[in-house]
């Protein structure tokens, strides 16, 4: 089994390395015709505006939209989540082109600037039930977006509770993120809709490959056929945690 990884900019090498640890081949995708050689795709984190400009330069948007429309499994992390969203707010002047398909509204830079990047333990019941391991995941948020609203067909896989002193961008207006006192409480950071998966954080920067294994299984369930070596990652999780460093706050 081969999984395509959009390799315009960002953490595509880290995704390929995570797939390799599962025994799955990652294929770098930079041109529209290369999408024909893969049946699933990861869109990595990176600088979303730069990635959009490069995708436009290589005329990738029509091919990427067709890939999504055909129902092929696609996973977007951080900037990749922004690309897949039907609507994005908090963008720079003029905005950026989106692929769309994921029925949600994303705030492009919800958690602030690069220096406000952080790690947090988030509850991942679906991932733990499918892949084993701990009921939580150590998520790395780097200049991260957040999901403000989701449609009825979108399954929420993870959210994060904001501390009372946590600063977020002042232009947030979504009432869905507020309690009765007007203070922010929980924000959605991982969702699934059909064959689309999206995370606001960076699983590829940790030794925990359960999200990658989960996506590989999504590809298998879509009728693609998966490698037996990627059947589970939970049993190897503790050893993997010792092998790779993670982003430190």
Explain this structure to me?
This protein has 249 residues and is an alpha/beta fold. The protein has a single domain (2-243), classed as Class I glutamine amidotransferase (GATase) domain (Rossmann fold, 3-Layer(aba) Sandwich), CATH 3.40.50.880. Helix content is 24%, strand content 26%. The protein is built from seven helices and twelve strands. The chain has helices spanning 12-21, 48-57, 61-69, 79-84, 125-131, 210-221, 237-243, and strands spanning 2-6, 25-29, 41-43, 74-77, 85-89, 102-107, 118-123, 136-141, 146-150, 155-161, 186-193, 196-199. Strands 2-1-3-4-12-11-10 form a seven-stranded mixed sheet. Strand 11 and strand 12 (196-199) form a beta hairpin. The longest helix has 12 residues, at 210-221. The relative contact order is 0.18. It catalyses: L-glutamine + H2O = L-glutamate + NH4(+). Residues 235-249 have a biased composition (Basic and acidic residues). Keywords: Glutamine amidotransferase, Hydrolase, Lyase. One of its GO terms (biological process) is pyridoxine metabolic process. Its EC number is 3.5.1.2.
């Amino acid at each position: 089994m081969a999984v395509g990884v959009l390799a315009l900019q960002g953490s595509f090498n880290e995704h390929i390395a995570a797939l390799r640890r599962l025994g799955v081949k990652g294929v770098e995708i930079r041109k529209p015709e290369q999408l024909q050689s893969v049946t699933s795709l990861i869109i990595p984190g990176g600088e979303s505006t730069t990635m959009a400009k490069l995708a436009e330069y290589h005329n990738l948007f029509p091919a990427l939209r067709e890939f999504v429309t055909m129902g092929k499994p696609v996973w977007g992390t951080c900037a990749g989540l922004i690309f897949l969203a039907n609507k994005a707010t908090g963008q720079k002047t003029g905005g950026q082109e989106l692929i769309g398909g994921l029925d949600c509204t994303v705030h492009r830079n919800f958690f602030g600037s690069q220096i406000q990047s952080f790690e947090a333990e988030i509850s991942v019941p679906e991932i733990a039930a499918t892949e084993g391991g701990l009921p939580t995941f150590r998520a790395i948020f780097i200049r991260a977006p957040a999901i403000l609203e989701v449609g009825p067909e979108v399954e929420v896989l993870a959210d994060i509770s904001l501390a009372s002193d946590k600063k977020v961008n002042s232009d947030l207006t979504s009432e869905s993120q507020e309690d009765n006192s007007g203070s922010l409480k929980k924000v959605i950071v991982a969702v699934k809709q059909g064959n689309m998966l999206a995370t606001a954080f960076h699983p590829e920067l940790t030794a925990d490959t359960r999200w990658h294994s989960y996506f590989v299984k999504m590809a298998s369930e879509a009728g693609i056929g998966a490698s037996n070596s990627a059947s589970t990652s939970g049993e190897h999780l503790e050893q993997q945690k010792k092998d790779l460093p993670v982003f430190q706050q």
